Amino acid sequence: MVHGTLEVLLVGAKGLENTDFLCNMDPYALLKCRSQEQRSSIASGKGSNPEWNESFVFTVSDQATELVIKLMDSDSGTSDDFVGEATIPLEAVYTEGSIPPTVYNVVKGEHYCGEIKVGLTFTPED
């Protein structure tokens, strides 16, 4: 079994469906790898094309087969809206070591609703 750290570079997203009718949405991302969850900052007023350029580190084993990134719209006063999610398979980063920022589809149910750009680096523990 392989153990190590997975570094996720959350670059940004494009073409997201705007869930706020009156103004630009304030998107953020929830990154989940098995039981570990991390949250990006809120891209206030960035609407459908947010940029984060933030890195997140997860402790992983090769039993963690995917990274799920849920995109949310921060709403003050009401619960945050679910924008969509991307599921990124991790098999390739375990064998390659790193994957440069790549575009993945964001879906809501079966419906395509934009894209997200993410880079991955896996560092095995000795």
UniProtKB/TrEMBL annotation:
<protein>
    <recommendedName>
        <fullName>C2 domain-containing protein</fullName>
    </recommendedName>
</protein>
<dbReference type="Pfam" id="PF00168">
    <property type="entry name" value="C2"/>
</dbReference>
<keyword id="KW-0106">Calcium</keyword>
<keyword id="KW-0479">Metal-binding</keyword>
<dbReference type="GO" id="GO:0046872">
    <property type="term" value="F:metal ion binding"/>
</dbReference>
<feature type="domain" description="C2">
    <location>
        <begin position="1"/>
        <end position="103"/>
    </location>
</feature>
<dbReference type="InterPro" id="IPR000008">
    <property type="entry name" value="C2_dom"/>
</dbReference>
<dbReference type="InterPro" id="IPR035892">
    <property type="entry name" value="C2_domain_sf"/>
</dbReference>
